Amino acid sequence: MPHDVQHSSRRAAKTPSLARHGRLRKSAAWKTLLKSVAAVAAVALVSGGAVAAYAAWDLAATAQPTVKLESEKVLEGVPDVGAIDGGVNLLVIGSDSRAGQGDGFGDPDEETAVLNDVTMLLHIAQDHSHVEVISFPRDMFVSVPGTCTDPEDPSEELSALSSVKMNSVLAYGGMDCVVKTVEELTGVTIPFAGIVQFMGVAGLSEAVGGVEVCVAEPIEDPYTDTYLDAGMHTLSGLPALQFLRVRHGVGDGSDLGRISNQQVFLSALARQLQADGTLGDPVKLYSIAKAALANMQLSSSLTDPTRMISIAKAMKDVDLSKIAFIQYPTGYVEGGVVPSDSAELVNQALQADLPISFDPAADQTDFASAADPNAPPADPNAQVAAEGDTGGEAPVEGSTESTPTPPAGSLPSDVTGQTAADVRCSAGRTLADQ
User: Fold this and answer.
1) Entry's Pfam families (predicted)?
2) Are strands 88-95 and 192-196 parallel, antiparallel or unpaired?
3) Is the pLDDT reported for residue 235 higher than 90?
4) Does residue 360 contact residue 199 with C-beta atoms inside 8 Å?
5) What's the sign of the alpha-carbon dihedral 297, 301, 303, 306?
6) By three-state DSSP, how is residue 183 classified?
7) In the CATH hierarchy, which fold is given to the domain comprising 28-433?
8) pTM higher than 0.85
9) Per-residue pLDDT tens for 339-374?
């Protein structure tokens, strides 16, 4: 398929080398107030206000300017996240910008392209019974709507684009444009968003005391200087960041393999946070807040402490088996990937606020995760019972006749991922296999 760029609004498309953010008022008092509010809010998110007073004073200088999302208007008159129709949607954007990240990631002036190499949609059900985390491949071709405004001049509209890679949208139109692109792709409204840089990920992993991950086969990746033997590894700081960035040393060496490798890490992190009482530890919570604020840019909707606390409460008690990490289903085309037919089923599940579960027959052999080799063997009788159970959630409609009908509540076998309760291992690859 052709990957041309279509222009449909009054301003020619442009792709800057650095991210552009909305200009702020020059009032020093306004900036100080904004930073203080952001600091209090971030601490409130993780601590429920226990250390908010001290943290606001100490963290105000580290808070970055916020960005206002057009979709925030849906929050007007909403008392808390539990009242948001259809659940909560929050977009996490991982930027590869080297600016302010030190010398370990290359020259910030020469090597920065401000690509959103990680784009994840967090969906919390309206009744707080389930959570979905959708990862969108960076090389997926998408359309950018003509409603994006120029971050440097909000009075100017940017051109609509078609068939551009997902990871180019941040540099083109900033945080709000990435949000609008994902909204158009999925059909859901996203009133919350945040951008995290390299050191934010490293700092967060240190703040939680490291994350233990399982490696099934050795990982050898000179691009990120990641070399891990098979077995269990506790990763913190830079090694944790590089594990999340590694691509050549896992799965098939593609970005799709990297996504499933990231799911191994994120599911392990979710299990750890529930198991070790981190959410009740003020010292750890303060460290998490400081690491986040120093290396994150939040949407202005996340500077409201009441909303932040509501989001934390909404996720606190979700069963690990009901937290699904999903790779947005795609198919290969020349130069990248495009959404497959099953992507619309994922969209429908999000729009209807339905839980997503995986077909037990899903084939994940091409990706970068494998079952835990130390786990007890599966009970074959349990599989038969699951396939015959029709008493759960109604299945997501839209399956084609050529696709085997999955068990009730699950999606076709080309929708891959894992739950936070699943202990999976990174399927590494050595230099000899690359």
Assistant:
1) LytR_cpsA_psr
2) parallel
3) yes
4) no
5) negative
6) helix
7) Aminopeptidase (3.40.630)
8) no
9) 999 999 999 999 999 999 898 877 665 556 666 666
